[in-house]
Specification:
The chain is α/β, with parallel strands linked by helices and 387 residues long. The protein folds into three domains: 114 residues, Rossmann fold (3-Layer(aba) Sandwich); 184 residues, Rossmann fold (3-Layer(aba) Sandwich), CATH 3.40.50.720; 82 residues, ACT domain (Alpha-Beta Plaits, 2-Layer Sandwich), CATH 3.30.70.260. It contains 13 helices and 16 strands. The strands form three sheets. Strands 8-7-6-9-10-11-12 form a seven-stranded parallel β-sheet, sandwiched between helices. Helix 10 links the parallel strand 10 and strand 11. Bound molecules: 1,4-dihydronicotinamide adenine dinucleotide (NAI) and 2-oxo-3-(phosphonooxy)propanoic acid (HPV). It catalyses: (2R)-3-phosphoglycerate + NAD(+) = 3-phosphooxypyruvate + NADH + H(+); (R)-2-hydroxyglutarate + NAD(+) = 2-oxoglutarate + NADH + H(+). This is D-3-phosphoglycerate dehydrogenase. Pathway: Amino-acid biosynthesis; L-serine biosynthesis; L-serine from 3-phospho-D-glycerate: step 1/3. Keywords: NAD, Oxidoreductase.
């Protein structure tokens, strides 16, 4: 029986997928696996029993990835599972930035007791007139799950789309419409685009990437959209640029004191993935990944350990080992097994940066003694009998 804990509400259609061999616990310390959305785990103590974290979503900047890896805790996310939800909000953001839809709605509400509201509306509407997005230049920074969907949709809305992503995946590249201009120098996006939207993960390398200098380079009257993370943008500089009339509108999904209430900023309260469909997709995907890991030891869509998959174990036993990516580990593991007279039927070892993962199937059942010996090898972070 495995136990899981939810740090945020997770859609029930996902949790239902756990089945009979799982129990939800309110006690984080008891959990074999934890499900999380945006809850901040960075300062949390990680219980010794915890084997895995499932981020029902994309961004993992709220999770201490290296600390997890050092404790042999495998962290998963659900690539693309909420990308359509975000894409749709970005499209809404572009339209809200181009037409004064919000101002117009507020005006009508302010006239709710006026019997002549209809007649007056025809007179007043010119103050809410806007422009169309068709024919405008859209620059997209980051062409992953969300960026590529925004790119294709914007193309279909008649926009002239420019994409920048030096690390684009082959899959994402295949999915992009051929009409999208491939930009090699991000400054070309800053200099030429009417709308600029950012869809990169928050890392030490991307923090503040929409800098004061980047904003200075932008066209007068540019619209900037940030549905990724607030600290990707130098928001102090953004507010100055808005006040100076350089940036026409800043559309963001992240409320904070720097931008809240500032004229021409339209803020949604982190609603990108808050659709029934995205929440369901993310929950289902995260639970699937956690189950495959807990029951089979397989790793798919981890953000701190390598992908590693040996399917369902058909041998007598399977052990898995999280360890440092250093020489001589396999020799030490196999030596312990051969000393115990155990015959290996299958073995896979994969590495990712400083960490590695080894799966070993065996002809005979692994004993606690063997696993204790493997766990005591220097560089081993966690050893587990899966079967
Ligand atoms: N507002 C919301 O509710 C949501 C926000 N997000 C945010 O959006 C981010 C992106 O999500 P996905 O598209 O699903 O992730 P993804 O991992 O599929 O795509 C990210 C893309 O950014 C690219 N990239 C990384 N560094 C870059 C750089 N310096 N310049 C240009 N491109 C760079 C990568 O190559 C990758 O193609 C997430 O990390 C998260 O922070 C994601 C989902 C919901
Ligand atoms: O998936 C992401 O990166 C998101 O930002 C969505 O966050 P949420 O699951 O809505 O708290």
């Amino acid at each position: 029986m495995f136990q899981y804990h939810c740090l945020n509400p997770i859609a029930s259609v996902g949790l239902d997928g756990f089945g009979d061999n799982y129990r939800q616990t309110d006690d984080f310390k008891e959990a074999d696996a934890v499900l999380v959305r945006s809850a901040k785990m960075l300062d949390m103590e990680l219980p010794g029993k915890l084997l895995a974290v499932g981020r029902a979503g994309a961004g993992v900047n709220n999770i201490p990835l290296d600390r997890c890896a050092d404790q042999g805790i495998v962290v998963f996310n659900t690539p693309g599972a909420n990308s359509n939800g975000v894409k749709e909000l970005v499209l809404a953001g572009m339209l809200l930035a181009s037409r004064d839809i919000v101002g117009g709605i507020e005006w009508v509400n302010s006239q709710k007791d006026n019997p002549d509201v209809g007649k007056l509306a025809e007179k007043q509407k010119k103050q809410f007139a806007g422009s169309e997005i068709s024919g405008k230049k859209l620059g997209i920074i980051g062409l992953g799950a969300i960026g590529q969907k925004v790119a294709n949709a914007a193309t279909h809305l008649g926009m002239d789309v420019y994409g920048y992503d030096p690390f684009i995946s082959v899959d994402a590249a295949w999915n992009l419409s051929r009409t999208i201009h491939h930009i090699q120098d991000v400054n070309d996006i800053y200099r030429n685009c009417d709308f600029i939207t950012i869809h990169v993960p928050l890392t030490d390398g991307t923090r503040g990437m929409i800098s004061r200098e980047a904003i200075q380079m932008m066209k007068d009257g540019v619209v900037v959209l940030n549905y990724a993370r607030d600290v990707l943008v130098d928001e102090e500089a953004m507010v100055e640029a808005l006040n100076a009339g350089k940036v026409k509108r800043y559309m963001t999904d992240f409320a904070n004191p720097t931008v809240a209430g500032v004229k021409n900023v339209i803020i949604t309260p982190h609603l990108g993935a808050s659709t029934r469909e995205s929440e369901d997709n993310c929950a289902v995907a995260a639970v699937k990944e956690l189950k495959n890991f807990l029951e089979n030891g397989n790793i798919k869509n981890s953000v701190n350990y390598p992908a590693c998959d040996m399917g369902v174990c058909t041998s007598a036993s399977r052990i898995t080992i999280c360890h440092k990516n250093v020489p001589d580990m396999i020799r030490q593991f196999t030596r312990i097994l051969s000393d115990a007279g155990v015959n290996i039927t299958d073995l896979t070892n994969k590495s990712r940066g400083s960490y590695a993962y080894t799966m070993i199937d065996m002809e005979t059942r692994a004993s606690e003694q063997i696993i204790t010996k493997i766990a005591s090898v220097e560089g081993v972070l966690r050893a587990r009998i899966v079967k």
